[in-house]
Amino acid sequence: MKNSETCERYEIEYQNADYYGEYKYADLLSKLSNLATKNAMEIGFGRKVLMENMVGY
Is the torsion defined by CA of 38, 40, 43, 48 positive or negative? Predict the structure, then answer.
């Protein structure tokens, strides 16, 4: 397996912050989940493999 690094930049919008101006963790986790899914597809470890092995169920 090759080592790879991915960099993405996002702007924090008003709706992604709470009343105190802190970044919402739910939005951060959502972005990291999307990035992990994209990287898994690039290395050929996609949903089909997960469903066959019933990972996460």
Answer: negative
In whole angstroms, what is the distance from residue 39 CA to residue 23 CA?
Answer: 24
Average confidence score pLDDT of the chain: 78
Evaluate whether 43 touches 37 at the Cβ level (below 8 Å).
no
Long-range contact list for 36-39, CB < 8 A, 24+ apart? 38/6, 39/4, 39/6
- Rounded to whole angstroms, the Cα distance separating 36 from 8 reads 12
Q: Which two tokens stand for residue 1?
A: 């397996």
Lowest mean pLDDT among 14-18, 29-33, 36-40, 48-52: 48-52
